[in-house]
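Annotated sample (chain length 653).
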Amino acid sequence: MKHLLASIGLLACTYANAQQFDFQNTNRWVAKPALHSVQEQFKKESAVTILDDRKVELKEDGKSVYMFNYQHKIIRVQDDKGIEMYNKIYIAMYPGSEIINIKARTITPSQKVIELPSDKIKEIEEDGRRYKLFAMEGVEKGSEVEYTYTIRRDVALFGTEMYQDSRSPIQEGFFTLTVPLFLKYDVKGFNNVDVSKDSVVDKKRIVAAYVSNVPTLDEEKYAYRDKYLKRIEYKLSYNLSKNDDVRLYTWKEFAQKAFMIYTQIDSKEEKAVDKFFKKIDLSKASSEAEKILAIEDFVKTNINVDENLIADGADNIERIVATKQSDDKGIARLTAALLGKAGIKYQIVFVCPRDEMPFDESFENWNRVDDIIIFFPSTGKYIHPESTELRYPYIPPTYAGSIGLYLKGTTIGTYTTALAQFKEIDVEPFEEHKQNLIAHVSFVPTLDTVVVASQQILSGYGANNYRPIFVFLPKDKQEETTKEIIQAASGSKDITNIEVLNSALNDAFTNKPLTIKGVAKSTSLLETAGNRILLKIGEVIGRQEEMYQEKPRQLPVELAYPHVLNRTITFEVPNGYKVQNLNDANITVELKEEGKTTCGFVSQATQKGNTITIEIFETYAKINYSMEQFETFKKVINAAADFNKVVFVLAKQ
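Output written by the structure step:
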């Protein structure tokens, strides 16, 4: 044992190794601090985290067992931005927790140590959350800000520690989890974070992790960052004092518990379901899909959903039916009960949106469970009970394409339960999601104004983004937004002949295109240059986003949903004039995979008589594009922006 402990101690102190697991719970707060060196690759950063040391320990405090979270950070600030980032320290306070042993100090470039007086630590509330706040004194360029604190809290069954963000890189990060021998937590590192094996030291069970030279990871356009962040997750897996071969908090156990919660109702709730169900008109529903829509629409039309609703019985169906108020859990229970009443087979599915950290089938972190959708095996489609603005078969776009935890019901004798099954949530075909435009441009006789008659034709998620405007907003706001949409094609507020078609939420069921029509008179699309007329024909497609990378791209592309933007612009050339640069409207940038365009912008201008027709096909057939495909993807995005800048030059013949 002595040799083992000696080896562990040597490992914890060996700074030449790539990974340094600290099993000794070393206290790195020294009495006489000195400034640290900054790695060459981080010298241009505004701030650098020299040390990020975290320890989580379960131990007795009085007659109870608590979890103690110890945090120790040293940050070098290197410019004014860095000073602004770290001259005030906020520590979040959570219900049932206590922050103790706060210490902080500033080490100046001249090695002067300025300790934080305890009376300078304040307690504040911002946006409904409470914080400990203290302002660091004497912070200047080249200073180090050092602080430490401990949080005492109830024992957490699951936890996550993030070791990467967009604020500052981390030169060294340590993590240890220490628990009594009779408990065993599983710990897993993500995105190349190494974690030690479970070890026993001084009659305690310890797991350690180490990171070094972790760069910042910024948010980027067309990407979801969180899943790529370096992190450590832990969960309680065994209580060896009770049964050393029974794994705790498995996905199977979660599925069984959740299935009971969301599908089992008591007799009073059942009576409320019967009463509510009788009000739903299913007489015109000839298919199962139509029945699903009718039930979903009735619930969402008659029940107000507030995920933050705090009230006794907010998820109780009897209360929901009586008050017409529900939280997110309650609306899922009510919807499931009504579907069962209608004889419709369904599966509860738990989701982790693609813009958050995902499920890991091999690591049962129940904290990853975020929301619920309902899957229908007979149609292969879904609904999201909580989203009042969505209708079958649409769910929030970042749910589609993610991995879902499906509760697959099974009956053993008279006992009904569920099995946990992980599989990808299908994405509706990209052709269903359109943001199309038909526009006709013509001059008035005086040639100082153009008339733009436009139709925005939206379907799938393209329509889902706008339909709530025409359902939930007052008339004046609807009209204001409609004009803004039409104005995008003309740059003018002089708009007439406004018409909106297929704006009902239920129109999503058959994917009827939401169509927004209008006629605008515009002078902003025109300029003159001597005897020539300049027509900003590219602006008819509306403002387009451009992508310029000041830093190397770090993340692969991920879109909210696949979609197409097909546009047809016709332009009547005035008699006696000719467009001198018709070919400027011809642009082709495509990414092809196996002979098919998965991402592209293709515009082609042709002329017949006085009529010029521009056909534009912009395609994003997938939600994911690799790092190797990024440059082409960026060119496609920029091609649309380039077209937006196309100006036709009209000269007299």
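Annotation: The CA atoms of residues 255 and 279 lie 32 Å apart.
Annotation: The two ends are 98 Å apart (CA to CA).
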